[in-house]
Design goal:
The complex is a heterodimer. In chain A, the strands form 2 sheets. In chain A, strands 1-2 form a two-stranded antiparallel sheet. Chain A contains 10 helices and 4 strands, in the order ααααααββαββααα. The longest helix of chain A has 48 residues, at 78-125. By secondary structure, chain A is mostly helical. Helix content of chain A is 63%, strand content 7%. Chain A has helices spanning 2-11, 21-44, 53-70, 78-125, 127-137, 139-155, 190-195, 216-223, 232-251, 264-273, and strands spanning 158-162, 170-174, 200-203, 209-212. In chain A, helix 5 crosses helix 6. In chain B, helix 2 (9-17) packs across helix 3, helix 3 packs across helix 4 (46-62) and helix 3 crosses helix 5. The chains are: A mainly alpha, B mainly alpha. Chain A binds chain B through residues 31, 34-35, 38-39, 41-50, 53-54, 56-58, 60-61, 64, and chain B through 21, 24-25, 28, 32-37, 40-41, 46, 50, 53-54, 57-58, 61-62, 78, 110, 112, 114-115, 119, 122-123, 141-144.
Chain lengths: 274, 189
């Protein structure tokens, strides 16, 4: 009982607070309030947004919509990702390999074409000019040309001449050997003739490249009875001439061959002497 | 009431969620001044503030479905903008680590003199603080984050947040005094 009274006394005990304490408490409360007010004041602060901000926000939102529309996200597990990556690597490797192969082929072809060009120039500068001059000179020269053509047609085999890659075509000149007939089948391609400044390139079985005048085109056509090349008047005229030439050639002691074909002036001299 | 104010907040949110650009613009018009105020406090300058405002609104529109209606919409938007600002400066928020002993020596004083300045002047002074000080000051004093929350968001410990705040206040106090002196000199030459 006594103990309970004592406890109650202690609980009810009152003492005068220290002087000036309230001012300290008030100051602390004010400070807290001030801080709160300051925070609220700053939170409420607003400023007009820049004029063009909304347009930029719209454009950003629109661009993101476009990206979402055009680029759907495809979720793949690990295995398909690896498989796709491997396939891509393989495809790129094959493309590179093929590209290398093509480049090598192209470089080889280029060299070959350059060689052909050089040969063409070489022949153009020398005997071929002499030959064409001679063919134009007289009818007798035409006889020589006919003989030469016959001889060439006998020894030539079907060959293919590859055009430079730039033309992107493969054109063949077929010079078929035909021992039984002087009318050898000769096909002359005008595109190829144009490439070599009018001269027709013909390749021997040994690989030697020879250029003859495009004027022999008509002659060659007549020899193989290709009537599409010339008019009916030309055909008749040339047929007569050919018959005449054949008779003369049959009587001649000297026959044209590949080794004397281009020395056409000398050849003409020999025939005249005989 | 203007047309902008006549639309309720709920209608604004609903319209924005449906992708209605007209309603989105109304939401922007209603909240952009306050949000721009936040951006200015966290930014170094007006240019950065503008970027943060733009990024913040784009985030708001893209993440609006995440607002569940718990608490005020403005409060949610404020958090989005504060986070956007922090993200903007995250690389630049360099916080000097100091020892615990040093931390205890720093006295946290209130910057009472700030009350004497207009908000615009205060913002200009706050912008002069380094990104670390400025962020902690804004988060603690104005946004009301605890030091623990600041520590979690910025990836620093509670004590560091306290010391950053104390330093920020100290620097601000000096700047305020200097500014007030200049103003007095202008009035009484």
């Amino acid at each position: 009982m006594l103990q309970e009274n004592y406890i109650k006394k202690l609980q009810d005990f009152e003492a005068a607070p220290p002087a000036m304490l309230w001012s300290s408490i008030a100051a602390a409360l004010d400070e807290a309030d001030d801080a709160k007010l300051f925070a609220e004041r700053m939170q409420q602060y607003s400023a007009p947004a820049p004029a063009d901000s909304w347009n930029k926000i719209i454009s950003q939102l629109n661009s993101s919509i476009k990206i979402e529309n055009t680029a759907p996200v495809i979720k793949l597990s690990r295995f398909p990702k690896i498989a796709i990556a491997a396939a891509l690597v393989a495809a790129v490797s094959i493309m590179l390999w093929l590209s290398d192969k093509k480049n090598i082929a192209a470089s080889v072809s280029t060299v070959t074409n350059e060689e052909i060009e050089n040969i063409a120039k070489q022949y153009e500068d020398k005997s071929l000019k002499q030959a064409t001059t001679a063919i134009n000179a007289s009818e007798a020269n035409n006889v020589i040309a006919a003989n030469a053509l016959n001889e060439v047609s006998k020894i030539m085999k079907p060959i293919k001449v590859h055009l430079p890659l730039q033309l992107n075509k493969q054109i063949a000149i077929h010079v078929k050997p035909n021992s039984s007939s002087a009318h050898a089948g000769i096909t002359v391609n005008n595109i190829l003739a144009n490439k070599f400044q009018g001269y027709i390139p013909v390749q021997s079985p040994g690989g030697e490249l020879t250029f003859v005048s495009p004027k022999l085109n008509l002659l060659a056509s007549l020899l193989q009875n290709d009537n599409n090349v010339a008019t009916s008047t030309d055909i008749e005229k040339w047929k007569l001439k050919l018959e005449d030439w054949k008779k003369k050639i049959a009587c001649a002691n000297i026959l044209p061959a590949t080794n004397n074909f281009f020395d056409i002036l000398e050849f003409e001299k020999l025939i005249s002497e005989n | 009431l203007t047309d902008n104010q006549s639309i309720t907040e709920a209608d604004l949110i609903k319209g924005c969620l449906s992708g209605d650009r007209r309603i989105q613009e109304k939401l922007y018009q209603r909240f952009s001044p306050k949000m721009y105020g936040i951006c200015l406090r966290y930014a170094n300058n007006h240019y950065d503030a503008k970027d943060i405002l733009q990024d913040g609104f784009v985030k708001v529109f893209r993440n609006l479905e995440k607002f569940r209606g718990e608490g005020s919409f403005e409060g949610w938007m404020r958090r989005v903008f504060v986070n956007t600002a922090i993200e903007h400066y995250r690389k630049k928020i360099y916080i000097n680590s100091i020892s615990e002993t040093e931390e205890n020596t720093i006295e946290d004083k209130s910057v009472s003199a700030l009350d004497q300045l207009a908000e615009k002047d205060i913002i200009e002074l706050v912008q002069k603080l380094s990104p670390g000080y400025r962020t902690v000051f804004n988060m603690y004093v104005i946004e009301g984050y605890s030091h623990k929350e600041i520590g979690d968001i910025l990836g620093i410990n509670e004590g560091t947040s306290k010391s950053q705040l104390a330093r920020a206040k100290s620097i601000l106090q000096k700047m305020v005094i200097t500014l007030l002196d200049e103003k007095r000199k202008k009035i009484t030459p």
